[in-house]
Amino acid sequence: MIITSSPGKIILFGEHAVVYDKLGIACSIDKRCNVKVFPSNKGSVLITSKNLNLTRSLTEKELFDLYEEINILIKKKSFDKIKKIYKNNELVPSFFVLASIFKKYGFKPLEIEIDSEVPENLGSSSSLFSAISFGVLKCLTKNFSKKDVSNFAYYGDLIAHGGTPSGIDNNTVTFGGYVKYKKSEGVKDLTIDFQIPLLIIDSGEKVKTGELVAYVRNQKEKNPEFVNSVLNSLDNISKKALEILVSKNLNDLGILMTKYYEELKKLNISTPNLDKIIEIALKNNALGAKPTGAWGGGCCLVLTKDEKNMLDLKNSFKQNGFRSFQVKIGVEGVKCI
Ligand code: PMV
Questions:
Q1: Residue 96 — very low, low, confident or very high, per pLDDT cuts 50/70/90?
Q2: Which of 155, 213, 260 to mutate to test the pocket of ligand 1 (most atoms within 8 A of CB)?
Q3: What does pTM read for this prediction?
Q4: pLDDT of 254 above 90
Q5: How far does the centroid of ligand 1 lie from the alpha carbon of residue 284, in Å?
Q6: First to last CA, the chain
Q7: pLDDT-derived band of residue 329, with 50, 70 and 90 as boundaries?
Q8: Measured from the CA of 212, which atom of ligand 1 is nearest?
Q9: Distance CA 173, CA 143 (A)
């Protein structure tokens, strides 16, 4: 049996813009998804997810039929049909990852058990696909790299992110640490040798990454000039953030986080809860705050000044009914345990 573990992630700067080849900055977090992979004598592949409370099994033929069906839909850009298949069976992206690996290395009956503590919108899907890819590749070959793991994990995000994932999530959780990412240039390691005192606030609203990515894509098609100008401003903010991260200026970093929030909010993807979280953060002297990931719910990042400010903020969020938590960031990427 092989047990793999992959971290969740947060996007510090660049969400949505990164889909359109703008700069993204992200890091791993110490909430992990664990996957057990073992050979099966049942002739099929069986996936059990504790979190989704789901078990599904597919024969070799069913698996490759699904693979062909989804590939055709991807080629035709039939994202709505892919969404429907995903809605009916949340394990479809995981099966698609498996099928992509088997296409290259040959089919093997396996059982896969998933147990994840990664909160939704903090890389829950990518960490799962990365942990599955790593475990299954380990079962099938000695000859693979982390880049292969990340590339196979990307196939899962193709479905989970509504057809056009940027690739930042699969790379961040696979390589771990801090990364900068651009679609056309790939992933690059960032050396950050100081702690960024972040507090994460859960809006309590479920995020639908695929729908939000599609929503921005539709707006871009209808109103390219406006959306492109927002994307360019976001790119400039992320580029400045990269310089500031290297110079360790937390005050300026906070200002840029809030700027990113104000700019991306123009695309109408914030929610009253996300806006309220940012308002509470700024009223209580946080250095800056922004949602992270796809928006439309999920979590916000709040940059705190010092320990006392962190405590004050935790209390204020609690009083307002929001769950907040600290995470260790920049942890190791996917690994065997
Ligand atoms: O919702 P999350 O945490 O998986 O983040 C999605 C990030 C987007 O930029 C919105 C999409 C992408 O593929 O980069």
A1: very high
A2: 213
A3: 0.95
A4: yes
A5: 28
A6: 11
A7: very high
A8: 10
A9: 20
